């Protein structure tokens, strides 16, 4: 899945620069022309980490699945 996301990212950049695949321009050259670098996967991973943090702060079934720890609420 990661390679497919990276391929899609390069396709988007090529489309923005109007660079065709048939022009035989390397991905490195396209990135240099765009004055950018590949960062889609970094963004995806950062969002996944933030989501896990969100789930861990809640007392829900997702938290139980991730941690294996059941939170017991004691009513006094």
Give an account of the 3D structure.
- The protein folds into two domains: 38 residues, no CATH class; 38 residues, no CATH class.
- 64% of the residues lie in helices and 0% in strands.
- It contains four helices and no strands.
- Helix 1 crosses helix 2.
- The longest helix is centred in the middle third of the chain and has 18 residues.
- The radius of gyration is 21 Å and the shape is rod-shaped.
- The model has no long low-confidence stretch (mean pLDDT 84).
Summarize, please:
By secondary structure, the protein is mainly alpha-helical.
The percent of residues in helical segments reads 55-70%
Number of helices: 4
When the domains are counted, the total is 2
Structural class assignment = mainly alpha
What is the beta-strand fraction?
under 5%
Cα shape:
rod-shaped
Topology pattern, helix = H, strand = E: HHHH
Number of strands: 0
Q: What's the Cα radius of gyration?
A: 21 Å
Stretches where pLDDT is under 50 for at least 5 consecutive residues are none
What's the rounded overall pLDDT mean?
A: 84
The separation of the N and C termini measures 50 Å
The biggest beta sheet is recorded as: none
